Amino acid sequence: MNQDIVKLENVNVVFGDRQVVQNVSFNLHTDCITTLIGPNGAGKTTLVKTVLGLVKPTSGSVWRKDNLAIGYVPQKLQIDSTFPLTVKRFLQISRKITSSQIQDAVVSVKVAHLLNSSIHGLSGGEMQRVLIARALLLNPQLLVLDEPVQGVDINGQIELYQLISDIRKVRKCSVLMISHDLHLVMSATDHVICMNHHICCSGHPEKITSDPSYIDLFGSASAKTMAMYAHHHNHNHDLHGDVLQSSDQSHAHTGECNH
Amino acid sequence: MLYDFLIFALIGGIGIAIVAGPLGAFVVWRRMSYFGDSLAHSALLGVAIGIFLEVNLNIAIIVCCLLLAVILVAMQKQKFIATDTLLGIMAHSSLSLGLVTISFVEDARVDLMAFLFGDLLSILPEDLWWIGIGGLLILVLLYSYWPQLIAMTINEELAAIEGVAVAKVKLLLMLMIALVIAVAMKIIGVLLITSLLIIPAASARPLSNSPERMAVLAAVIGCAAVVMGLLASFQFDTPAGPSVVVAAMVIFLAIYVRPIKAQS
After folding, report:
1. How far is the first Cα of chain A from the last one, in angstroms, to the nearest whole number?
2. Is the ipTM reported for this complex over the cut 0.85?
3. Topology of the domain covering B4-193
């Protein structure tokens, strides 16, 4: 039985005179991968930061399970080059973490060879893996990733998605992930939420493994890790993101995880 | 003993350099050098208030620096002007306010140059106690909050999620910098204190691959600069603060010229 670990109810976030998140409600459960998609500037990162507790909602409530351990992999981590830092030191989050814990973490994300390298020379994909390793060192029950495959080539994306679903299988943690792609999501995703300030629609992605034209286009490895998400909006947006046709709006969230 | 004052100045200077090293590293990493400058300028306001109210100067300087650090943190929350503008306003306002206040005190003969550029002869055993207690307090705080300080410097959001009380640790760092500036003022002087924070740390950067190494090296380089500078100041009768800064600059150049040669 899946339990709720995070509950958002009618969450609104207003920055100045801009309503970034509008009346959003959803739950996150144990052992479940949720992917959040939506256009640029739709408030995805803000919503995720609300889940993390970095942004306080203007109204509405955010409930997190007591002592919920969260690992966060931010979209980008800019470390000042005046700060001398090796990968190993970066992963030494507190004095309690032992060398063998760090070793396990880097092995599980396949960056053990980078342990003594400077953090400043890493490629985008390597940095993502190091960030995931740091998040894993906290033994998270919820792993939150903000566009983990941004700036990574298609093969790198497949590898990263594979890695994330492996981590979830081994650790049985929940995953909340922002994806930059509106139609392709990780195939292990249980639940997709599409948002543009408010939740536009949500549901399950469709398996595309069997579609031969897709396999022709992207190869079979990609077909195993990616899945197509079919939107079912009941309204349209203009260029400013305002809802044009608002008849029969139901923001009710229907998808549940079933394994 | 004839050279007591030199011994006092050396002990005091080394004590300051030991804590200025790691704190200076944070000033370099977090781009706070203008913040240090503003606090240092406000130390003169502390001197003026201390003379005016006839209270202990060390206490007046420390209270004034800590107070201004808190005011700065509070005022950074407003969104009308950028932090560097705010710091510029505070630095020069508090310096001018200090100079104006001192000019009102007619009977007390105040050696302004000593406060602006530091004075070897002004170091008394009492000042060494202030440096000793202040320095020890900062070292203990640095050791106990080191992982949080480093996590916050890497990324404040990650640190917050990992359970670091970011606002509190940030304030603590600013208060520690204010404290070291307050106790260092007599030796180095208001206008030059920031250089004792940033030059040793900047010199240590090319030689370091970890934040801990950079902090320790900065302390060692700072001590060397203090010893070289104060001895030169005694030998050639040059002002103490500028002599220390010149020594630090020489070390900085020696370290930075080497990698540039290696590159070409």
Report:
1. 10
2. no
3. ABC transporter involved in vitamin B12 uptake, BtuC (1.10.3470)
